[in-house]
Amino acid sequence: MRHAYTVETVRKAEHTLMTRVPPGTLMQRAAAGLAAACADLLGRTGRRRGIYGSRVVALVGSGDNGGDTLYATARLARRGAGATAVLLAPEKTHPGGLAAFRRAGGRTVTPADAPPLIARADLVLDGIVGIGGKGGLRPEAAGLARAAYEARVAVVAVDLPSGVDASTGEVHGDAVRADATITFGTYKPCQLIDPAAEHTGALRLIDIGLGPYLPDPELEALQHADVAALLPTPVGESDKYRRGVVGVVAGSERYPGAAVLAVGGALRGGAGAVRYVGPAADAVIARYPETLVSAGPPSKAGRVQAWVVGPGLGDDARGRQAVAEVLASDVPVLVDADGLRLADRRAIRERTAPTVLTPHAGEAAALLEAAREDVETARLAHVRRLAEEFAATVLLKGSTTLVAEQGHPVRVNPTGTAWLSTAGSGDVLSGLTGSLLAAGLTARDAASVGAYLHGLAGRYADVPFGSHELAERIPEVWHSVHPEQGA
Ligand SMILES: NC(=O)C1=CN([C@@H]2O[C@H](COP(=O)(O)OP(=O)(O)OC[C@H]3O[C@@H](n4cnc5c(N)ncnc54)[C@H](OP(=O)(O)O)[C@@H]3O)[C@@H](O)[C@H]2O)[C@@H](O)CC1
Ligand SMILES: Nc1ncnc2c1ncn2[C@@H]1O[C@H](COP(=O)(O)OP(=O)(O)O)[C@@H](O)[C@H]1O
Ligand SMILES: [K+]
Fold first, then answer.
1. Which domain holds residue 359?
2. Nearest-CA neighbor of 318 among 363, 279, 275?
3. CATH number of the domain residue 152 falls in
4. Residue 323 pLDDT > 80, yes or no?
5. Rounded to whole angstroms, how far apart are CA atoms 125 and 33?
6. Which of 219, 235, 268 delimits the end of a domain?
């Protein structure tokens, strides 16, 4: 599991740790890790395939982020790199870092003289601001970031790409675009949540001894081992009912395909059986003959361990009634797509069994009466608000999928690809996640494991793919996560 913390928490932990180690220790740990990571990178990608003779340009701001950068660049200079520091605030530059840099033979220049040096560099270190940054980059710093981007030089962000909001992943104004980010002590939300995560590049954590001083995480991201431990596995005495039956209420005369896609996802999520309820039974059976189908209302369909309601449901009276019946049940319910529009807000809030809502940004905006772009630019705040207002587990889809439930750290999905933004891919996700719910995972685990597997399926599928491909890829994905199971 990867954990991330906001600036406030990082500062508190650092404060405690700093009282227990000699002054300057943490910065030296950070700089040593940073220099080693840059050395690796220069070895692999620099024009000279190594540190000696390489050209390193450090962009140095007024705080400790600039200090880390100067100490690290001094280390590279001592190993033969030609090092230049662009000082954005010469009179406020970290004095110890600057002295070390000069002793190592580094030279300093003004921002005005920097662009040609940046264009010829093998590596640019972004030490403009770290966790002390406020708002987007100031114009002078923004110009340097642009010069590096336009010259296609490799950029390593020190702690985080300067200009992004460390605690929320929001980006207000100009920010550095890094190829790699070397972060210290713990991950920060900006490295995991878009739009800031898009600026981060490859991410590496340097241990500076902060771990014991950090509280419960504010954000977490599952990794393969976490997902493997959560995947449902049939045991000796399992039968289809014990493995869980998932009911799928989806599709309409107009959108039969949504039913097929949701059922396809559900068949791959580990439940023992899939029960389909709705008017698209013929299409479902034609593709997946193992589905149990019924044409009547959900309340007459027989027992299930979890319901999925909404994909392609349309918005007529039948759909509305089906959503109400499902919400009135005493088993976990996942509400997606049209279901989100048809569901009565109070009925969701008053449920005692778990409820998972899976809106994309547009649906989330409608639920919160907010603007879509506000949801997209401040995903963390909005997913938390939804979880609170609806007293539900909320999976907010999009470029970064987030799962929020009150009283728990928000989960960030680390898998996925923009190729998933194709019609019907959300239907597969809802079926898959509902199946995990029926198999007995908690709402939060089902949502985060569903998003994880779905995201990997998108990465495994040959592009460009149609959404039906995603369900077919799940066994392969399952196997990659849990090598003793799956394809
Ligand atoms: N604490 C620790 O134990 C450890 C911390 N470590 C390191 O310290 C970093 C945090 O250092 P920090 O607190 O000095 O803040 P930092 O991010 O360098 O920036 C501060 C200055 O930047 C300026 N500025 C602000 N916004 C700006 C903008 N938009 N555009 C341009 N400039 C802007 C503003 O200056 P102003 O001009 O307003 O006076 C402000 O004072 C952390 O990320 C990590 O790298 C490691 O060594 C490990 C141990
Ligand atoms: N830019 C993106 N990067 C990664 N994943 C994305 C992106 N855009 C959308 N997705 C994913 O694609 C799926 C789309 O779901 P949804 O919006 O419900 O589409 P549909 O309604 O057509 O099924 C979601 O899983 C979402 O997280
Ligand atoms: K930085």
1. 224-481
2. 279
3. 3.40.50.10260
4. yes
5. 13
6. 219
Residues 276 and 155 both lie in one domain: no
- Domain contains 487: no
Ligand 1 pocket check for 91: Cβ under 6 Å: no
Is the minimum distance from the CB of 18 to ligand 1 under 6 angstroms? yes
For range 46-72, the mean pLDDT: 93
pLDDT bracket for residue 243 (50, 70, 90)? confident
Annotation: binding site for (6S)-NADPHX? 64-68, 130-136, 159, 258, 312, 360, 427
pLDDT in tens, 62-89: 999 999 999 999 999 999 999 999 999 9
The arithmetic mean of pLDDT across residues 48-72, rounded, is 95
Q: Where are the beta strands (DSSP E) in 400-441?
A: 402-404, 410-412
CA distance 168 to 244: 37
pLDDT of 315 over the 90 cut: no
> Which atom belonging to ligand 1 lies closest to the Cα atom of 208?
48
Does any ligand 1 atom lie closer than 6 A to the CB of residue 106?
no
The torsion of the CA quartet 301, 346, 402, 249, rounded to 10 degrees, works out to: 20
Mean pLDDT of the chain: 96
Distance CA 199, CA 183 (A): 13
Closest CA relative to residue 447, chosen from 331, 350, 337, 334: 334
Q: How confident is the model at residue 46 (pLDDT cuts 50, 70, 90)?
A: low
Say how many domains are in the chain.
2
Q: For this complex, say whether ipTM is above 0.90.
A: yes
Atom of ligand 2 nearest to the CA of 418: 3
The alpha helices in 279-392, defined as continuous H runs, are 281-287, 317-327, 338-342, 345-349, 361-368, 372-377, 379-390
**pLDDT given at position 2:** 95
CA 320 to ligand 2 centroid distance, Å = 24
264 and 235 in one domain? yes
- pLDDT given at position 487: 73
CA of 143 to the centre of ligand 1 (A): 19
Considering only CA atoms, which residue is closest to atom 15 of ligand 2?
Answer: 426
Report whether residue 395 contacts ligand 1, using a CB cutoff of 6 Å: no
CATH number of the domain where residue 337 is located: 3.40.1190.20
* Rounded alpha-carbon distances, angstroms, from residue 280 to 256, 261, 315: 5, 11, 15
pLDDT at 49: 81
Q: Tell me what pLDDT residue 23 has.
A: 95
